[in-house]
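Hello forum,

I keep getting stuck at the same step: I have a sequence, I want structure tokens, and every attempt I make locally crashes halfway through. Rather than fight my setup again tonight, could one of you with a working pipeline run this one for me? It's a single chain of 139 residues.
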Amino acid sequence: MMNLELLFHASKVTGDESFRKVAISHAEQVMHHQVRKDYSCFHIIYYDKKTGKPIKGETSQGYSDNSAWSRGQAWGIYGFTMCYRETRDKRFLKTAAEKDGRLLPLIIPTFLPTRLPGGTLTPFKKVTHPVSVPTPVKW
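Reply #2:
Ran it on my machine without issues. Output:
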């Protein structure tokens, strides 16, 4: 999703619409196969080599296959927003907004640092799913 902007740009500077078509097709495939019903996403989708149909989803860089992989969520929000900007196709905007609505409630409380004895702060945590939302630190 992060490389689609390059395809849109290539289409503009070369006049070759095939780059634009590839970007849109990729975004549509991600929307249909990698984005789950709750708008979290898989990291990887495996496709049947003969039929081209999806076989399974995996999140090898996240907590588990059914986790909300934070970097992938962010890439999706950016990529679908950018696809909307380039196409004005409201499907892309809806997907970005739903992903944003799914991600922000998970990361905002998770990324609040916790004060340790002595006043130092803990490092930020990775987002995992399911998430128990900690109580924010009172400063």
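Confidence is low (pLDDT under 50) at residues 125-139. If your local run keeps crashing, start a new thread with the error log.
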